[in-house]
Amino acid sequence: MASIFTKIVNGEIPSYKIAENDEFYAFLDINPNSKGHxxxxxxxxxxxxxxLDIETxxxxxxxxxxxxxxxxxxxxxxxxxxxxxxxxxPHVHVHLIPLHSMEDARFTSKVSMTPESFKExxxxxxxxxxxx
Length: 132
What we know:
alpha+beta
């Protein structure tokens, strides 16, 4: 059965898309640790990051780099944190989290955003990708 992320890639579930190419997809986390919390995924459904072939792994990291740079241009923060945990969805996903303190990286506190603010933020981050 397809993961929730595969369903997002296939357009079966809506998302606040930031970036997409033939192999990868980036979208805002709908339960964010901080404003701008973004997930980057390979379109190919693989459960564990170190089960990716090296070319896909390297491609994912390069994709994450570009998205993180655009995120950094858009959301005021101390830095962009990166986390790969992968226990909650059996599909490789990299969390890019704008950090203001270490609490933002702990997955214990969440911020609330409206659908309109998610949409505006996704568009703002995507517009900054052209500057990378």
